[in-house]
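Today's session is about reading a structure prediction critically. Students often jump straight to the picture, but the first step is always the sequence itself: look for stretches that repeat, for charged clusters, for runs of hydrophobic residues. Only then move on to the predicted structure, which in these notes is written as discrete structure tokens rather than atom positions. Here is the chain we will use throughout the hour.
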Amino acid sequence: MPEIGPPYFLGIVVGTQGLQSGIFDLRGNVVAMSFYSYPEYHPRPGWAEQDPLDWWKAAQDTVRRCIFEGEVRPEDIAAISVSAVSCTVLPVDRFGNPKYRAIMWMDVRAFEQAERINATQNPILRYAGGHESPEWMIPKALWIKENLPEVFTNADLIVECQNWMVFKLTNRWVTSLNNAICKWNYCPTEGGWPVSLLRELRFEEILDKWPRELLAVGQPVGELTKHAAYELGLTPGIPVIQGGIDAYAAMVGLDVVHPQRLALVIGPSTCHMAVSEHPIFSSGIWGPYYEAVVPGLWILEGGQSSTGSIIKWFGENFAPEECREACEVGEDLFVALDRIASQVSPGAEGLIVIDYFQGNRSPYQDPLARGAIWGLSLSHTKAHILRAVYEGTAFGTYHILETLARDGFEVQEVYASGSGAKSKLWLQIHADVTNIPIYLTTVEETSVLGTAIFAAYGSGFFESIADATLRMVKVSGQIYPNQNHHEIYRFYYDKYVRSYFALRDLMHEVSSKEGGKRFST
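Below is the predicted structure for this chain, in token form.
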């Protein structure tokens, strides 16, 4: 066992399904980790909301548990940082009291507002892959103004989850530069705030409702207040360091802070973050984002809307007994599912799965695209379907990497984390499909580690984020591609890509028809 001792660093990450807190030492060793789940609310199809008070309740529970279970003295916590899911938008008064439930990242009610933004063809959109997502801040804030005018008027601020959590800790309203660049259309190389876009939308008033002070990840925000310290079981005055988006914190927790590396964060969706020395404008890929995490470097972001969520869908609908048995014996669910999928050879005997169950995020940016399973015969079983799901989601990642390569960015190494990284077979399929080695790190909860790294760097224990990752992130394993399997997958990948163009018009017809029902009042 590694020797663990103070100083300690507390990372808090507000996720989609729950909040996780973790305490780490200067070597990146886990001292304690705790998770607290909270509900989602879906008042209408396509809507998703959360109660911010649940986030704070979760923070109180997990921080206190970490202190107790890790046998940590509160005075040994040297710094705190908090990261959170992005695009979870919340109207509040200046004291932080919510005026409406938080509109989650997965909520697509602002689809029409996003389309109007895209119709402007404003030059700033080239930093969003040419296409604004309804998930982002401006479409959601505009939706609030147009559909909840009293809420908008009475809200002193329109913020994200991360802003609100930092305010709860420090009583200061500031915005993470990471969030602003990646999801608020802030562009450091184009004058900063997207004033020209907001002017075209006649929505400049939103600037008065955003916390305009920007702090990069790793910069000090302030000190933990007496009230927050009391509620969390900590000592007042602990430095609070700026965090950012959870997936970007995971990138740091994977040591993807060097060019040509890519972070593969596999959860309900999959995020792909790559670091580049030069700006690369790639249609369908978000960014390039200048200095969103690392000074002097650009970040490119791709994503798949549905990956782990499709695996969950499969388990609930086609393998409930296997999932129940795994739960009863304390076996990880992916171990049980891998046993099923491993019964089938690469190519799933001609079965193709299109992973657009919640639309395509990259590279088509098509929210009306839908999933498909084709090639079925009477010889296919649920094992074939699961194998094809594993392969189809890996094809989606390969499609993003090929798009980047077409525009001049070659990924040389992939570092994987997230709940999906627990599936050894799924990761092997990703390696085989992409023909790129995949590296794993010691700490599975990389977003929590990355957030703790922000705390360690920002409180002066390291000279840079890269210096901190060198000390606090450790590679624990490698998965190398099988060249024979890669050749097999090249054939099926071609069919995967061509399927979208063959089915796109049909997908749009059905999605538009059902969408009219979905969003009607």
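Discussion point for the tutorial: The CA atoms of residues 325 and 331 lie 8 Å apart.
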